[in-house]
Write a structure and sequence with these properties.
DNA Polymerase III, Chain A, domain 2, 44% strand, alpha+beta, 25 strands, 8-stranded antiparallel sheet
């Protein structure tokens, strides 16, 4: 195998694939990237057995072939080469190492046989559905913060992507929850999406897909099966297993008739919560909200650090009441509000779930569970 490739193109492709490689691996081949050179250029592949990323790039190929080399080491070498450098990759059976050269720089890297590299099959995947890149970014960004990190409830460790029908209109919906908060975002289902099975996309896959979307074109092709999902971003593709489990019936926890409605300037609210939370106890980060007509009083009490109080004007004309929330959860939701105003819909009781809406984006909903006093 012998090819010459421009540094920027190689760095971009390596950057796409190497992030899937775990820093510590008990299986040596999983620390490597598969380099495949043919007449059309080079393909690079990396996997952790649950997810595989493949990217293709152009180059001048003088000898076709395949080999694997340490992913992170190769990436760091290419990253530190000067801009505009021409990188030559060479491997032959006489020297059991991959030779990397650019200008006066020479490196020899250990290799493992390409035949030992695991390849993820794409059996059973549905026909392609094309989604606008901006729409997919929005679905992910509006919901991924609520993905659970608690391994005991593994079925919550991902983003539930599925198609629903409301009033005869098909919508593609993403939902995430950790049991304390829930985030939902939806869009009109793209053509051909009606038959897609609902799948729970693992947290790591969501993160990698979001990163690859930064370099995607105007649209992304999506293929889904009950066991796998595949994103195609132009010349790059991500294939991943999905979480084997059932997502809980989340619709039951979304309040339908919360009558106490409060409108507040979202930017001022976020700043106030952030300030009073400075002295909150790290474990609970509890912020008490005293709500009365025309104003809200945010209070944090800490036996060691003292007390913080903030008062804000709000649009609310109902009865006065108090309710408490985790400050970080409030800030996470405030960070997703697109418009200037946030709408809170409170239930009758202090422990009833609260619905938060964005008047500027009717296709998102957030649910927050209050803290016990």
């Amino acid at each position: 195998m012998q090819l010459t490739i421009e540094r920027a193109a190689l760095l971009k492709a390596l950057g796409h694939v190497q992030s899937v490689v775990e820093r510590r691996n008990t299986i040596p081949i999983l620390s490597n990237v598969l380099l495949s050179a043919d007449r059309d250029g080079m393909a690079l592949s990396a996997t952790d057995l649950d997810m595989e990323i493949v990217d293709e790039t152009e180059g001048r190929v003088d000898g076709q072939g395949q080999i694997t080399a340490p992913a992170h080491t190769l990436y760091e070498i290419v990253r530190k080469l000067p801009e505009g450098a021409e990188v030559e990759l060479r491997f032959n059976g006489e020297d059991p190492r991959l030779q990397v050269s650019a200008g006066r720089s020479r490196f020899n890297l250990p290799v493992l046989p390409a035949g030992d590299f695991p390849v993820m099959s794409s059996d059973g995947l549905s026909s392609r559905v094309s989604i606008d890149t901006g729409d997919l970014i929005r679905l992910i960004d509006k919901t991924r913060f609520a993905i659970s990190t608690e391994e005991t409830r593994y079925y919550l460790n991902g983003l539930y992507l599925h198609v629903v029908s409301e009033g005869g209109v098909a919508k593609l919906r993403a939902v995430a929850t950790d049991g304390h908060r829930l985030a939902l975002a939806e869009m009109l289902a793209p053509e051909g999406a009606a038959g897609l099975p609902g799948v729970i996309i693992p947290r790591k896959t969501v993160q990698e897909a979001r990163r690859l979307l930064e370099d995607a074109g105007e649209s992304v092709d999506l293929q889904v099966s009950p066991q796998k999902i595949r994103f195609e971003f132009g010349r790059a593709a991500l294939t991943s297993k999905v979480i084997d489990g059932s997502f809980p019936p989340y619709e039951r926890v979304i309040p339908k008739d919360n009558q106490r409605i409060l409108m507040i300037d979202n930017g001022l609210f976020a700043q106030a919560v952030d300030r009073v939370a400075t002295i909150s106890a790290e474990r609970s980060r509890s912020v008490k909200m005293g709500i009365e007509p025309g104003r809200i009083i945010l209070t944090v009490r800490n036996m060691e650090a003292g007390q913080g109080v903030e008062e804000l004007e709000v649009d609310y004309d109902g009865e006065a009441f108090e309710i408490g929330f985790n400050a970080r959860y409030l800030l996470d939701v405030a960070g997703q509000i697109q418009g200037e105003t946030a709408e809170f819909r409170f239930g009758a009781g202090s422990l009833d779930p609260t619905l938060v809406l964005d008047p500027a984006d009717p296709d998102v909903q957030y649910v927050l569970m209050p803290l016990r006093a």
